[in-house]
Amino acid sequence: MPPRPTPKSDQDWKTVEFDIKKLFTPAAPIGRAELFAGRRAQLQRLFDAIAEPGRHAVLYGERGVGKTSLANVFHELISGDSDSPLLPIKKQASPSDDFTSLWRKIFREIGFENRRKGDYGNDDVERGSIAELYPNEIVPDDVVREIGRFAVKAHPIIVFDEFDRISDQATKKVMSHTIKAFSDTPIAATIVLVGVADDINTLVEEHQSVTRNISEIKMPRMSKEELNEILNGRYKKIGMTIEGDARWKIVTLSRGLPEFVHALGRASALNAISERRLIIKEADVDAGIKETLAQSDQSANAVYRKAIDSNKKNALYRQVILACAIAKADEEGKFTPKDVVEPLSGILGRRVDIANFQNHLGAFSSDERGGILERHGKERSYKYRFRNPKMQPFVIMQGIASGDVGNEALKILSAPEQPRLSTEF
Questions:
Q1: Which of 219, 245, 272 is the last residue of a domain?
Q2: Quick check: 207 and 200 in contact, CB under 8 A?
Q3: What angle do CA 130, 136, 142 make, to 5 degrees?
């Protein structure tokens, strides 16, 4: 793609602004394969599941790591070739769904055609969706029979997104039986369940009976290389460049969550073009942080305020939750009290022990402080994690805006060679 010529008129700059807003989509999943970044290993495992007879897949991970975007792109990739036998049908689950309503959504996408001779030798053709044939309950045998007929001409790929929203445990159990039934037949069909979960147990009841039939595909937070891909691909299309300090600040603050790379990447680029520049600088990211906080939804602000507000002068709730956000965590975003010691010591400018903030962690995990954290494990070996992952970068940005993250920390955040958010202050 040739570089964009430097805009000359106000209309030219408005065109760049429009392109930025179109390409960076923090509020919506990615729907176009050309804009999708990373996740090659997870995509390959989905394709491997399709290729293997009797194999199905469960795609799971934290909220906000891009599962729906991956499902959308997977859908696009396998439906792009008109000569391919693969036929994806993707539907979103809702809390009110049961087994029948889920499969009725799928059946509405599958047509039938009955032909019979008319009174004058002409063919009378009756057309409709197979959902019309099942006005009442749908059971696994119905699904296997109808999908089996459909699979004679195509290989259906049936994707249920947000499957974690299903509240009826019986539905999850019957879905497991259905997957097992498909695997026990020669039917060329693949079921893919997508949802928020730490492990497959949350999404699939009685999964032990179908373990050998399911590919468990975990979506971790994005690597820094993958987050960079998001920025690189979009800035290249727009004709913009970004300085190293600015790039690493965006990537590091995002904490592996694509939504925040989109939000900060967009806000920073918009600030640059407001000053008629195609080069994004660190000052643009700083302005982007303020803009992102200003545009944050009320629920995030309410959760944050409930977590930190106190009538006590030296309560330290704001500083402790910031230290939790900065603390080194495992691939599931979980951290121990010990992980909080160094960042909190840096924020306060004095050495602290776990005993100085242990009660704060308990409070953050309770309704008293809005449950901003969730606690895992057993006493004396507790781990903690932000209940909503997006609160982690939100809290760090609040810390930068309030000045609780000092100059030394900001230097570490800004360093192009620094691949991690260091806790060394």
A1: 219
A2: yes
A3: 55
Q: Are residues 89 and 159 in contact, defined by beta-carbon separation less than 8 angstroms? A: yes
Cβ contact 226:199 at 8 Å:
no
Amino acid letter at 44? Q
Which residue is listed with tokens 């840096």?
346
Cβ atoms of 247 and 416 closer than 8 Å? yes
Question: How many other β-carbons are positioned within 10 Å of the β-carbon of residue 120?
Answer: 5
Does residue 153 surpass a pLDDT of 90? no
Q: Between 99-107 and 169-183, two packed helices, what is the crossing angle to 10 degrees?
A: 50
Query: What's the CA gap between 104 and 143, in Å, rounded?
Result: 10
Contact indicator for 372, 321 with CB cutoff of 8 Å: yes
- What is the number of domains present in the chain? 3
Average pLDDT score over the chain: 86
E strand or H helix at 349:
none
Q: Does pTM surpass 0.85?
A: no
CATH code: domain of residue 191: 3.40.50.300
Residues 113 and 142 in one domain: yes
State how far the alpha carbon of 122 is from the alpha carbons of 111, 115, 127, 408, in Å.
22, 10, 16, 84
Q: Note the pLDDT of residue 423.
A: 35
Q: How many CA atoms lie within 13 A of 330 on its CB side?
A: 9
Q: Please give the Cα distance from 378 to 390 (Å, whole number).
A: 25
CATH at 230: 1.10.8
